[in-house]
Design brief:
Layout: H1 2-10, E1 13-19, H2 27-35, H3 54-63, E2 75-82, H4 87-100, E3 104-105, E4 111-115, H5 125-131, H6 133-154
Parallel strand pairs: 1-2, 2-3, 2-4
Length: 171
């Protein structure tokens, strides 16, 4: 997870492409989301706990810090695909999660949910995907929207609209 978090921190934009499983994010992806809790106001100095020492971490938190959104200001794009149910719900949930972390949507074209091989057999799902040529261009458009947004954010041309606002509820 440390490697994944380091990549999130160094990225100016993130594109998530995922299938939907039973109206939910795949297990491994959900675990990664849960472990990114440190990005949402977690300990600003992970070295201060000398590893996984819960009592030390609790003491540091209770002593007070401002719960920084470590990944705020980065752009995102999301693509969710599935064959039976839930693509729109998972896409919406991922966009809300990224927004909560302070990410910025790269425009309307950066959020895509599509059914592929809708209610067709699993045995033909790869062939069904290969036949869906339009989906490949739609995914490229999500990537293009993200690629266009990142430099605008870096140049300050897309401001953080809530910059300077402080929450009355730290956590």
């Amino acid at each position: 997870m440390a490697e994944i978090y380091e990549r999130f921190v160094s990225a100016h934009g993130v594109m998530i492409v995922t299938p939907v499983y039973w109206d939910q994010a795949p297990g491994g992806f959900k675990l990664m989301m849960d472990r990114l809790v440190c990005a949402d106001g977690g300990n600003p100095d992970p070295t201060s706990t000398s590893g996984k020492k819960p009592e030390m971490a609790k003491a540091i938190e209770l002593a007070g810090w401002d719960y920084p959104k470590h990944l705020a200001g980065r752009a995102y794009g999301v693509v969710v695909h599935g064959d039976a149910s839930g693509v729109e719900h998972l896409r919406q949930m991922l966009c809300e999660w990224l927004g909560w972390l302070g990410f910025i949507a790269a425009g309307h074209a950066s959020q895509l949910d599509r059914y592929i091989g809708y209610f067709k057999p699993y045995a033909t799902s790869h062939e069904d995907l290969d036949k869906e040529e339009a989906i490949f261009e739609e995914v490229r458009n999500v990537a293009r929207a993200l690629a266009q947004t990142v430099p605008l954010i870096r140049e300050g041309r897309i401001p953080l609209l809530d910059k300077g606002l402080s929450s009355p509820r730290q956590k």
